[in-house]
User: What shape does this take?
Amino acid sequence: QSVLTQPPSVSAAPGQKVTISCSGSSSNLGNNFVSWYQQFPGTAPKLLIYDDNRRPSGIPDRFSGSKSGASATLGITGLQTGDEADYYCGTWDNTLSAVILGGGTKVTVL
Amino acid sequence: QLQLQESGPGLVKPSETLSLTCTVSGGSISTSSYYWGWIRQAPGKGLEWIGNIFYRGNTYYNPSLKSRVTISIDTSKNQFSLKLTSVTAADTAVYYCARHGRQVVRARYYYSYIDVWGKGTTVTVSS
Assistant: This one.
């Protein structure tokens, strides 16, 4: 069981918006930045968001991140079939002195 | 462009030690801007962070694996390595090496976001 809690799956129609939640505690998300990763089957994850809401070069602005207290959200607007993937949140945990990752959320485009 | 490449045996016997090396190309491992680490993914499961290391040798480990894990670094070869002892079938996974970026929180440095990943290498634990 992950320290960071994500819903196992979310879905929406093409063109719609989905949001993925990531819930933690004051030991981690409440006091540290969140990052988000996208992973297609059989490939390495890719960084989508870091420092709560910053996008690396090349990541489209359809992907956005936000955080409030110990909860974070990844938003994907203008959903495309190519967005079908697993998404993970991550952060530092001050109590564990370790990087922690959420259990992952599968996005399905209906 | 920075690239990371994992190497090591794809098959390890139970109770033995898993050893992997990550070779970094296109940039120096000897930088204060990043930590270098390992993440694994068991078949059909999520990502599990194993640990990371600074070029000066400072390390952090996943508490659940700490008793069995050692991460080391060789700046002369631009490589870092993972050793996991007393492996069981539960250690069967794809192992990724990765670069961890630096963040500043209340004037302290943390290295928690992973911005460059290797392609991953599959390690099977079986007799």
User: Anything to note?
Assistant: The interface with chain B takes residues 2, 31-33, 35, 37, 39, 43-47, 50-51, 56, 86, 88, 90-92, 96-104 of chain A (CB under 8 Å). The two ends of chain A are 28 Å apart (CA to CA).
